[in-house]
Amino acid sequence: MHHIGVPLRASVAARNIVWDVIFVGRFVEKKGLIELLEAVELLAERAPLRVALIGDGPMKDEVAKKAAASRANIILLGALSPAEVAHHLAASRMLVAPSKQASDGDCEGLPTVVVEAAAAALPVVATLHSGIPEAVLDGRTGLLSPEGDVARLAANIMMLFENHNLASDLGRQGRAFVENAFDMSKQTAILETYYEDISAGASR
């Protein structure tokens, strides 16, 4: 298994929280957006969550309708550039990526934004889906729950919303994990050695 990795900045900027929860991705079934909105709604009376949804896709109208009917403060920011996404990640308390297998069998690989969030020292609340546990270590760099488990997803969101020290610790450990296992420059150098070894073997 070889992970491509993401570019890393030398340091992580101080966080000025605007959003408690941020989601980044296509508005399609496998991203678990409906489960996210249901989890946020479960917490509406307990926590004044500020939720940002970044992206677009075939479920946009359904998501917008559900967000408008929610008691939570949910803002759809649309599709944004990578620089704009990075800006909003830096202004968030946690990334939520509640991915699941879609009804047609469609699944994730490893969502790049999960690694990008960890690189920004952002704790990740996600699901035990596909490659996500390779980048989100439950209880160490983020919190994981079973696919489609809205109650557990809500509990994990609430845990980080209430416990800022825990959120900070998970984010710091997530950054360290990415530096070790998902740094694009390091991963590219390792990949190059694989090609060199194969080329050397072929020339013998």
TrEMBL record:
InterPro entries: Glyco_trans_1, Glycosyltransferase_grp1. It comes from Arenivirga flava. It comes from the Bacteria. This is Glycosyl transferase family 1 domain-containing protein. Residues 20-176 form the Glycosyl transferase family domain. The keyword Membrane does not apply. Keywords: Transferase. GO terms for molecular function: glycosyltransferase activity.
